[in-house]
Amino acid sequence: MYKYVVRFWLFSFFIIIVIIIVIIIIINIRSDRFLDVALQYVGAVPYDECVRKAVQKQRAVYEAFPRSKCALAFKAIAQKVDTWPLPANPRGHLEFFVERLVHQTSAGPVQ
C-alpha cells in the first residue's frame, strides 16, 4: 500500500513540474510575440521575515537589513541586470510612447 502512495505522489509531482514548464514556455512565447521582449530568468528572492520588518519601518529591505537573504538576492539580481547591454535605438511600443511624450513636453503644450 505504501508503495502505491509514494508512486502516486511522485507522479503528481512530475505532472505539476510538467505543467509549470509548459506555462513558462507559453509565457515566453506570448511575451516575445506581443511585447517584443524575451524573458530571461535572472534569479529568485527567497522568503525572508526581514521584508515584513522593512515594510513596517517603511524602508527598503536592502537599506534596513543589508545582510539578509533577500537583500543579497536583490543585490545579485541587480548586478546581473546592470550588465545587460543598453539598446541603441528604440524598438517600438513603450520606447516610442516615452520618446513622443518627451518631445511633446519639451516643445511646450499641444494646442
Q: Can you walk me through this structure?
A:
Helix content is 67%, strand content 0%. The protein is mainly α. The protein starts with a helix and ends with a helix. The model has no long low-confidence stretch (mean pLDDT 79).
Summarize the structure.
With 111 residues, the protein is an all-alpha fold. The protein contains five helices and no strands.
Uncertain runs are: none
State mean pLDDT (0 to 100 scale): 79
- Give a quick account of the main beta sheet: strands, pairing sense, barrel closure: none
Could you say which structural class the secondary elements and strand pairing correspond to? mainly alpha
Cα-atom radius of gyration: 22 Å
Instruction: Give the helix proportion (percent range).
Output: 55-70%
Number of strands: 0
The topology string of helices and strands comes to HHHHH
